[in-house]
Amino acid sequence: MKVTVSVIKADIGGFVGHSDAHPDCLCTADSALARAKEKGLLIDYHVTKCGDDLQLIMTHQKGENNGDIHEMAWDTFVECTEVAKKLKLYGAGQDLLTDAFSGNIKGMGPGAAEMEFEERVSEPIVVFMADKTSSGAWNMPLYKMFADPFNTIGLVIAENMHQGFKFEVHDVKESKKITFKTPEEIYDMLVFIGAANRYPVKAVYTLSGEIAASSSTQKLAFLAGRYVGKDDPVCIVRCQGAFPAVGEALEPFAKPYLVEGWMRGSHYGPLMPVSVAQSQPTRFDGPPRVTALGFQLSEGRLVGPRDFFADVSYDQARQKANDMAYMMREHGPFEPHRLPLDEMEYTTMPQVSRKLESRFEAI
Ligand code: F6R
Ligand code: MG
Ligand code: MG
């Protein structure tokens, strides 16, 4: 049977500050999705959080970009925002950029990753969710999962993976996309996806066109025309068989790497793999976090989750991320901890420059 997995997320208010999602908001979202399931709109759902982001993981048969599903998710965020407002949570309704739903949740603030496929005899999927970072955060792990034999041995020794994959890469500034075939075009592709903030990997496909991975790529700052929080992206990866084994999909996160985000969305910091319970940023509003929930689909039913990073084998990654956090923090307001001027989400440069304009002299 054909199933659509939709992961739609929004920051509708933080508890405390920008750190965590409030249990009452999670409960409200759960009841809203339970009603949608009762009505038959959803096959199944799982409500969770990653830091201050409310995550709706849903299955249905309506396909991607479906107006009914998106509207129901939007209404759920609106209802949760009411709860957040009553509790005076921080930044209540932060990611809801418009007043009324207009057909598709994309471009309205919330992030969405969706994929439709024919459910296999056994269909394991992993949903990755990150807080205090942006959509380009998936570029390196997706490259490793689907194109790096040092990460994914299946690319070398599994007959059904040996022919490689296709990567759909977006240019979020100029709103265009291009598809690269790996391994043949990895050098060309890396020119682009190495600049992860501008060229996020939107999706990965097998050569026969089967969807393998799908990520959210919206840029809140472009949508709102001002800083409204980092994009805190999500990504769905299908596993086993012609796709990476679950362990190959999780492996990139064993080596923490630097991503954009962290305090005020204006710093580089290590992406730390954590359990859902440990997903709330603390130190300097971070460091950026990533969670991974695994499900087996059964006729669209979400059997799970398994909280993969709640495991001792990621202890060392967490330790390393903490060490990297100390190293980066030592730079204080200096680059390369602070982002370059044009990448920073907050800046006082225009005001300070204006104030000091008359004091600048030619040299
Ligand atoms: C980063 C983030 C936080 C806030 C910071 C200041 O994505 O959400 O680091 O930027 O806590 O928040 P405001 O400006 O809301 O006081
Ligand atoms: Mg927030
Ligand atoms: Mg967030």
Provide a descriptive summary of the structure in words.
The chain folds into two domains: 1-114, Alpha-Beta Plaits, CATH 3.30.70; 119-358, no CATH class. It has 363 residues and is α+β, with helices and mostly antiparallel strands. Helix 1 (23-38) runs antiparallel to helix 2. The strands form three sheets. Strands 5, 6, 7, 8, 9, 10, 13, 14 and 15 form a nine-stranded mixed beta sheet that branches. The chain has helices spanning 23-38, 67-86, 139-147, 154-157, 186-193, 220-224, 246-250, 315-329, 349-356, and strands at 2-10, 44-50, 53-60, 111-118, 123-131, 165-171, 176-182, 201-206, 211-215, 234-238, 258-261, 267-270, 272-273, 289-298, 301-307. The model has no long low-confidence stretch (mean pLDDT 95). Bound molecules: fructose -6-phosphate and magnesium ion (MG) (2 copies). One magnesium ion is lined by residues 11, 14, 18, 52, 91, 94, 229.
Order of helices and strands: EHEEHEEHHEEHEEHEHEEEEEHH
Detail the poorly predicted runs. Answer: none
Rg over CA atoms, rounded to whole Å, is 20 Å
**Major sheet: size, sense and barrel closure?**
9 strands, mixed
Structural class: alpha+beta
- Count the DSSP helices: 9
The mean pLDDT is 95
What fraction of the residues are assigned to beta strands by DSSP? 25-35%
**Small molecules bound:** fructose -6-phosphate, magnesium ion
Which range best describes the helical content: under 10%, 10-25%, 25-40%, 40-55%, 55-70% or over 70%? Answer: 10-25%
Taking the alpha carbons of the first and last residues, their distance comes to 71 Å
Give the domain tally.
2
